[in-house]
């Protein structure tokens, strides 16, 4: 199985869900609704924001290790 190095691991989504206190289904629904341009619930928006924060933190840490 070939890995795609441009996509973050599934652990970020699970961590975001745990931090917000929602199930993985909420995250998956939020991704789908966001892609389709539909409005999101408060929990869906919160989990996507937390996911993006985790990804940005990881990118910053990776960049600091490179320097």
Concise description?
This protein has 67 residues and is mainly alpha-helical. The chain is built from three helices and no strands.
What does the secondary structure layout of this molecule look like, with pairings?
Elements: H1 10-20, H2 24-36, H3 42-66
Helical fraction equals: over 70%
Distance between the termini: 31 Å
Overall number of domains: 1
Overall pLDDT: 88
Q: What amount of the residues lies in strands? A: under 5%
Number of separate helices: 3
Coarse morphology? elongated
Low-confidence stretches: none
**Class derived from helix and strand content:** mainly alpha
Q: What is the number of E strands?
A: 0
How can the largest sheet be summarized? none
- Based on CA atoms alone, the radius of gyration comes out at 13 Å
The H/E string reads: HHH
Describe it.
With 67 residues, this protein is mostly helical. It has one domain (10-66). It has 3 helices and no strands. The chain is elongated, with a radius of gyration of 13 Å. Helix 1 (10-20) crosses helix 3 (42-66) and helix 2 packs across helix 3 (42-66). It has helices at residues 10-20, 24-36, 42-66.
């Amino acid at each position: 199985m070939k890995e795609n190095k441009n996509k973050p691991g599934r652990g970020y989504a699970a961590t975001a869900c745990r931090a917000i206190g929602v199930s993985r289904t909420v995250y998956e629904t939020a991704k789908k609704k966001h892609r389709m341009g539909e409005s999101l619930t408060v929990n869906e928006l919160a989990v996507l924001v937390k996911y993006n924060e985790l990804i940005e933190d990881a990118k910053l840490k990776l960049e600091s290790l490179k320097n």
